[in-house]
Amino acid sequence: MPRAEISGDATLKHQNPLILITKDLFQTEIAVFEEGRLVEFYQEPNHQEGLVGNVYVGRISRILPGMESAFVDVGLERDGFLFEGDIGSAGFLEGDTYAKGARRNPSIKRLREGDRVLVQVSKEPMGPKGARLSSQLSLPGNYLVFMPYLNHIGVSRKVSGDERKRLREMVRRIRGDFKCGFILRTAAEHGEEGEFAAEMQALAEKWELIRCKAGLVEAPALVHQEADAVERSIREILLRSDGSVKTDDPEIAARCEDVMKSIGQDPGRVALWKDRKIRLFERYGIPGEVEKALRPKVWLPSGGCIVIQPTEALVSIDVNSGRYTGKRNLEETAFKINMEAAREVIRQLRLRSLGGIIVIDFIDMTDRKHREALLAELQKHLESDRAKSRILSISEFGLVEMTRKRSHKHLLRVMTGVCPCCEGRGRVAAPWRVAQNIVTSLQGFRGNGALRVKAAPEVIRYLEDNRDRFGLADDLRLEHWSYPQTTKYDIQSYK
Fold it and tell me: Judging by beta carbons within 10 Å of its beta carbon (0-12, 13-18, 19+), is residue 188 exposed, middle or buried?
């Protein structure tokens, strides 16, 4: 089927969902729209593919019994870390021979430095931390996740009722005496036996190839490369939907068509953006949306707002009434803002790739039905989120606690760096404190000739206003930086 072509005159109305993909010299960017709104955004540098899902033969470089963890050299910039809880009943590599089940239920204390181990990246490196590893391997397919070390059959929590039972019985029958594990993904709902049997066979063959390769290579070595972000996005989003793909790169368009064919979908749903007057992402306003997603405050249609603050321990989200004052009473006002906030909070979690522990402080409501409706609204919008999550009931303090699996680096870390002025604290020293440091430095300064001080404009103004009080010399020159760097200053001699 010939590829569709679109130009700058194309309307913004589209099928749901819509995946936009662009590529430049530096990176590949992927944006996902649902109901006309940007809900996901990812970047993958061209020189570095994603690590999650990759399988490595690693070598244990250090063991920390007190932390119940070990560092494993897998050939990356920093050693990954393996927690005891991520070991399970895995097979280990001993010498040059793969010994399946050589150690059952191993603990960190039984490991030795230099041991070879087959591990999979479960979380990307973040900041100074290396990648999180697991020896409980899993290989994802379109409908199934294959787990070679577990004798278990599970079904996605998003599948319920009789369908859940049907799928489990079907997979148990197809698997037979093959002692391994499978999890049926959400896309498997209403699937046929033939589809599952073919995918089981393909995943088992892939695992056998990994297993054989692992026994032949020297550690550290990559033995399985997971699909890149483009392929993963298409497989996970478009397998069971009527969405489409648009890209401005002919090579990516051809790849997308191949992926669509491989999952049994119409490659004609891939369209090539041809207009050179305006970039694809600019046409859909993505740069502006991404810029907004870097700000802590998000405004709601009613005039309320949410404030998002990621920290080391958790993500804090505060819901405020903002400019909205309501029309009837406080309870109705709080309910309206909270319901709007629930929809936007889930969108922002997906867009910003936020995960871990999340605490949401909604506006207090006393009506039990309103509180139940709020939790139902959160659950409803989480159904479209591919990341695993769990929500607890509203606490006595009116807080909603939830967890969301981290699947990507969060947007703020990817798009920004630490401020050189405040060093990530979000605050800078007051001008009077910087001026105080300058005066102290001047008293002990050893130099030839008169002195010149350069600092931020507000610091210089403070010094000039208090020149007599500080006893500054008449020939002391006070000059401000050409850029506002509040905490820095420079003292030099001049003739």
Answer: buried
